[in-house]
Amino acid sequence: MRKLLFFLFLCGVNLVFAQKKNDTGFIININGDTVKGRFKLGMPATNSLKILFQSETETEMRPYVPFSLKKWKLDYEEHYNESKYFSYKDGGQTYGVFMKQLIKGEVSYYQYFNPTTEMGVNEFYLEKGGKLTLIKTGKFHTQLSEYFKDAPELSEKIRLKKFKKSQTAQIVQEYNQWVESQWK
Fold first, then answer.
1. What single DSSP character describes residue 148?
2. What's the CA gap between 121 and 113, in Å, rounded?
């Protein structure tokens, strides 16, 4: 009997955690208006392509896809999710996706859940001059040293492996501070 009750308890816990979340936050629509409401979010793969949102003045959830709004943000998260054009292969067809903006600046830093692989994977992108660049795992130091070559000291520190991939945000912040100092 105890085993049966324990099994039923585990099933109940799994059902609770498997349900979609209802979270408060806001969207910024195409006109630039901020609209407060609540989200019904699914798995990361779904959220990178579509979200469900209900404004405080509406009675039903409405689906939004990238570029049907500019950005969206949950109240408890620090970062925005922004509409971006994305190509799965260089020069291939582009798609609208939502990417989480981790840093905004001369170079912006984004996280994207790519659902095209069998299990899905988190990918990280840099954006400079409107062009998104995937940060490649195996060529991290070579790629970023070249990417930030206009900041020679930073580029050299990257080349000498003074940073790990987990410190990409620090690299981007250092670069953006360097760019800002060039204007003073």
1. T
2. 6
